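Regression check, coenzyme A case 192:
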Amino acid sequence: MLEGLLVDLIPYGEKCRAQDHRWWNNESVFWSSMGERNIVSRAQVDREHGEWTESLDKAPESGVPFCAQTKDGKPLGYFGINWYSYHHRLANLGASLGEPEYWGGGYGTDALLLIVDYGFEWLDARKIWLGTMGLNQRVLRQMEKVGFTLEARHRAVALADGQWYDEMVYGLLRDEWPGRPAMVEKLGLKAR
Ligand SMILES: CC(C)(COP(=O)(O)OP(=O)(O)OC[C@H]1O[C@@H](n2cnc3c(N)ncnc32)[C@H](O)[C@@H]1OP(=O)(O)O)[C@@H](O)C(=O)NCCC(=O)NCCS
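Current build output:
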């Protein structure tokens, strides 16, 4: 378990998977998949869980998924390394808290510090990156706060509610990461 101040990250197992049908059909998908709004059946969720588990077993570079939960154990959503290249030591991050009432409360930033630290300290990543649509102000703010650099802007690739948005690509190099304790102090994060 990776222990934060507001959340802990545990392996993405049954606790979070049991929520996936609800999470994959709510507002969180619009933000995490850059504007898509799909209705996903339970059968699709089960099939994708099966394929996902199989791909993780076969190819560890396909990712390290974590379930973010509150300190009292309520599952909030996915936070993880979507894929990792051991050759390039390059990690791609993904995040989606499936409980909208928790957005904007600092849970995501706490989880982000944990996953970045995990990427650098455990996977020995040299670089961690993430892409999001320009409309996603919560992520843009998070990236800025945690010291990521905006490295690319893919123009007009995301269609969200009838409008085209750019994808913003952010990266953080290991040398730029002061470590989680220093970042907790810089941001003034506290347990509550
Ligand atoms: C993205 C996500 C993980 C962030 O977690 P979170 O707990 O909501 O984020 P935090 O509360 O830690 O930080 C969000 C920051 O954005 C700010 N923010 C929130 N709404 C904002 C808005 N409309 N405009 C500008 N800033 C905004 C918050 O004030 C906070 O900054 P602050 O700490 O300086 O006040 C979470 O919102 C989420 O899962 N959203 C849905 C799916 C998603 O967007 N996934 C990411 C795909 S790349």
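Comparison notes: The two ends are 19 Å apart (CA to CA). The mean pLDDT is 95. No diff flagged against the previous build.
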